[in-house]
Every structure is written in structure tokens, then in C-alpha cells.
UniProtKB/TrEMBL annotation:
Family stated for the protein in its record: Belongs to the peptidase C40 family.
Keywords recorded for this protein, A-Z: Hydrolase, Protease, Signal, Thiol protease
UniProt lineage: Bacteria, Pseudomonadati, Pseudomonadota, Gammaproteobacteria, Oceanospirillales
PANTHER family attached to this UniProt entry: ENDOPEPTIDASE NLPC-RELATED (PTHR47360:SF1), MUREIN DD-ENDOPEPTIDASE MEPS/MUREIN LD-CARBOXYPEPTIDASE (PTHR47360)
Annotated Gene3D superfamilies: endopeptidase domain like (from Nostoc punctiforme) (3.90.1720.10)
Signal peptide start and end residues: 1-20
Residues annotated as domain NlpC/P60: 67-188
Name of this protein: NlpC/P60 domain-containing protein
Pfam families referenced in this protein's UniProt entry, alphabetically: NLPC_P60 (PF00877)
Length: 203
């Protein structure tokens, strides 16, 4: 009987040594958080999201890289290259320089140029030769009764309807064209011209 009492007392001491008092357990429960394994999910959040236009009429085209102007002009070159020069011509059977500019600006930029070189040279603003950008009209005064016009493509090249070789790309620093260079005009601001490429593609 004495042995049982001693064993019961020893067991009670061991149990009380492995657990905190009731009050302490309540405090621990109040300030301790259970360890729970969580899974991290990666979410791509854009740095900035432009607000959507409230109304359709409020929509304005976003800025477009000027590189699209050059690409549009090179596409026109592929479309017209080799077409023979015909004074007064307006088709792939034959075309003159100002009619080519009409087609190029209409097809590539949805922009209507006047028909003749004399009218086209009055379009937009005059541009210095060293400030030429793709999409600028370049004018020449070669020998003979007619002026000549082409469109600057970039890297020193312009697209035009040559009277001897038809539609082609030529260099501005070519001895002939350098000698008879007259002036350049920018019919449309470059940001608008780039945006017009999108309009022409939608048309």
C-alpha cells in the first residue's frame, strides 16, 4: 500500500514537470500562433495600367514608333518597284513621280496629297536636308520643264519614279540628285504619320 502511494506521488511529479500551470497555458494559447504551412503563389502585377477610356469618342491612338513609317515606305517600294515612268501615268502600267507620291501616302498613311509637284511642294513645313526623316518629301529641279519629287526612306535613300529606270530607291548623295536637290517638306508631323499607318492598315 505504501509502495502504491509512493509510485502515484512520483507519477504526479513527473506529469506536473512536463506541463505548465493552467493559467500559463491560457496565456500561451492567447499569444501563440499555430504553425501552418502556406503555399506562395506568384502573381504578375503590371507596374502601371493605363485607365480605360470612358467613352469610345474619348479614345486616342497610343504613340507609335516612327520605325513603322520606314517599314510602310519599304512596303510601298516592294509594291511599286519596277513600274515604268510615264508622264501623267497613275497606275502600275506607268506612273509619274507626283502620282507615285499620291499613291504612297494614300496607301501607306491614309493621307491625301495633291496631284502635282507644284502643289505638293506647298504641303506642310520646310525641313533642312540634315534634319530629314522618313516620310519627308524631297524635291529636285533637274534640267527640263518639270520638277521632281520623292519620299525620304532613311539612311540616305529616297523612293521615287525615275524617268529612266522607273520606281526605285536612290541615294540622295548620288552626284546627279545632289546637284539638283531643291528642298524638303514634311507634310504631316511624324507622330501623326506613324499613327496613320495604323489607320491605313485598318482601311
Amino acid at each position: 500500500m505504501l509502495r502504491r502511494t509512493a509510485m502515484g506521488l512520483a507519477l504526479a511529479i513527473v506529469i506536473s514537470g512536463c506541463s505548465a500551470p493552467v493559467k500559463q497555458q491560457q496565456v500561451n494559447a492567447q499569444y501563440s500562433l499555430p504553425l501552418v504551412k502556406t503555399r506562395t503563389v506568384a502573381v504578375d502585377i503590371p507596374e502601371s495600367v493605363p485607365p480605360a477610356p470612358q467613352k469610345i469618342r474619348d479614345f486616342r491612338p497610343q504613340s507609335v514608333s516612327p520605325a513603322v513609317i520606314r517599314k510602310a515606305l519599304l512596303d510601298e517600294h516592294q509594291r511599286w518597284v519596277g513600274t515604268p515612268y510615264v508622264l501623267g501615268g497613275t497606275t502600275h502600267r506607268g506612273i509619274d513621280c507626283s502620282a507615285l507620291m499620291q499613291h504612297v501616302f494614300g496607301e501607306a498613311f491614309a493621307f491625301e496629297l495633291p496631284r502635282t509637284t507644284e502643289e505638293q511642294v506647298l504641303e506642310g513645313d520646310r525641313v533642312a536636308e540634315q534634319n530629314l526623316k522618313a516620310g519627308d518629301l524631297v524635291f529636285f529641279q533637274p534640267p527640263g520643264p518639270y520638277n521632281h519629287v520623292g519620299v525620304y526612306v532613311g539612311d540616305g535613300y529616297f523612293l521615287h519614279a525615275s524617268s529612266s529606270q522607273g520606281v526605285k530607291l536612290s541615294r540622295l548623295d548620288n552626284v546627279y540628285w545632289k546637284r539638283y536637290y531643291w528642298q524638303a517638306r514634311r507634310p504631316v508631323e511624324r507622330t501623326q504619320l506613324a499613327q496613320r499607318v495604323m489607320l491605313a492598315n485598318e482601311g
